[in-house]
Amino acid sequence: MELPAHLESTPAWREIRAELRRVVGESTYEIWLAPLQVKSWDDKLLLLEAPHATQAWVAKRFSRVLERCARAVAGRPIQVAFTATSSDHDSAPRKPASGAQEATSHALNPRYRFEQFIIGDGNRLAHAAALAVAELPGQAYNPLFLHAPPGLGKTHLLHAIGNYVHAFGSGASVRYTTVEAFTNHFIASLGSKSVDRFKRAYRDADVLLIDDVQFLASKAKTEEEFFHTFNALYETGRQLVLTCDRLPRQLTAVEERLRERFESGLIADIRPPDFATRVAILRKRSALDRVPVTDPDVLELIAERVTDNVRSLEGALIRVVAHHSLTRQPITLALAASVLDCMYPSARRRQPDVTDIQASVASFYDLSVAELVSGARAARVAWPRQVAIHLARKLTDASLTEIGEAFGRRNHATIVHSCKRVAHRLASDDDAHDQVATLSARIVGQDPDRAG
Questions:
Q1: What is the DSSP letter of 33?
Q2: Residue 98: exposure state from Cβ atoms within 10 A (0-12, 13-18, ≥19)
Q3: Which of these, 2, 176, 205, 241, has the minimum number of CB atoms within 10 Å of its CB?
Q4: Mind listing the domains of the chain with CATH numbers?
């Protein structure tokens, strides 16, 4: 594959990066793989530039996954090799553990800025809170806890705060890290007897940005150090911003004292973007990357097919553009449909059955189907079970007896009681109403924002 002069902007390399992000996860990608640049790419060899401090570590850990992703895009084996970034002035190689420390200090993605963030109903509060924190660190909301499933923009807002403070914060220091990098750095400092230096690295920051705090679970020593770091910053009026894929109270494997601190500030959730927001995101992305999409119906088709998260949405656009680039076909509605049909087929319209509903509700609330139909009475199970029963009654033709059988042989009265409880809560709880509406639309294969 012979690439044009501007290698970084080619759809093929963008598709490889999208695939890498999906395979290794957002946090790992941002720390280790986002800095990679294409030096050259011929039929057999992809030569990548990496920062000198992390080149050896990235080559050792990620060469194979890079080759798999390159092969998936090119359709044939591609060897991946590395060279140090030409503008890197470091003369001495560093150990991977130290590389983690350096990377977390300077890993802010310059593309993740507030002006590149598309605001919709699902993320308006989170965006406003993040901007307020960036403008007045330590004075607006402290801590700020951003909660959302993967791929909805938590990391974008986290980096946007850091980039804003760097640009307008009058010299305030910012440190971005993930819990994985924090853990690795802490373990390395214990081994090298440099714990004091480790503590200063985090506790001297004016703004500490921490991604993926759910991974603190079951890491006792790291959790203890994280607790003291949190307290040291909070008590001196410094800003903490955390992201997580679940609410603090759902972090059952994290100590209660930390969960309480997470809940002491503002918790801002991000919900999946509606149709209009998804189209706006695609327009912004195509404009930023100078993608030649002239037919607006193409973007609307992608927005209709891909509804779960922003990462998948942008990945779908990249796939369409890469197919255009590799086959020389114009970007038409027909081309987009043929590319999307493989991974994002048209939504089904058959009536769902009770097992469909059980699977969707269990996934939505991070439960197994076995838990959902069990006799457990804990709130984290009882409410999702009632929702599933309510939706089974609403969306299927199953009788109350059949629904009861499907939910652990519950009797007629229990099924009726569950439906009444859900109806009563939906009338007074906006969050519960939104959850059930989203689930209902998802189950019937319909976008709630396009359902009329």
A1: I
A2: middle
A3: 2
A4: 7-92 (3.30.300.180), 103-269 (3.40.50.300), 275-343 (1.10.8), 354-443 (1.10.1750.10)
- Tokens representing 154? 């938590």
Query: How far apart, in whole angstroms, are the C-alpha atoms of residue 263 and residue 107?
Result: 27
Measured CA to CA, the distance from residue 111 to residue 105 in angstroms comes to 17
User: Amino acid identity, residue 316?
Assistant: A
Q: Which residue, among 21, 23, 24, 68, has the nearest Cα to 46 in the 3D structure?
A: 68
Enumerate long-range contacts of 443-447, CB under 8 Å, 24 or more apart. 443/352, 443/356, 443/357, 443/360, 443/391, 443/395, 444/349, 444/351, 444/352, 444/395, 445/347, 445/348, 445/349, 446/347, 447/275, 447/304, 447/307, 447/347
What are the structure tokens assigned to 394, written together? Answer: 């609403």
Q: Other C-beta atoms within 10 Å of 67: how many? A: 15
| 441 neighbors 447 (Cβ within 8 angstroms) | yes
Distance of CA 170 to the CA centre of its chain: 30
pLDDT tens string for the chain (452 positions)? Answer: 444 444 444 677 888 888 888 777 765 677 678 888 888 887 788 889 888 767 777 887 788 888 888 888 877 888 888 887 654 444 333 333 343 333 344 478 888 999 989 998 889 999 999 999 999 998 889 999 999 988 899 999 999 999 999 888 878 899 999 998 899 889 988 888 888 999 988 988 999 999 999 888 777 888 999 999 999 999 888 999 999 988 998 888 888 999 999 999 999 999 988 888 999 999 988 887 787 787 888 899 999 888 878 888 888 888 888 888 788 888 888 888 888 887 777 654 557 889 989 999 999 999 999 999 999 999 999 999 999 999 999 989 899 999 999 999 999 999 999 999 999 998 888 888 888 888 887 887 644 454 43
Q: Which of 205, 212, 213, 118 has the alpha carbon at shortest distance from 166? A: 205
Q: Are 282 and 120 in contact (CB under 8 A)?
A: no
Q: To which H or E segment does residue 70 belong?
A: helix 55-74
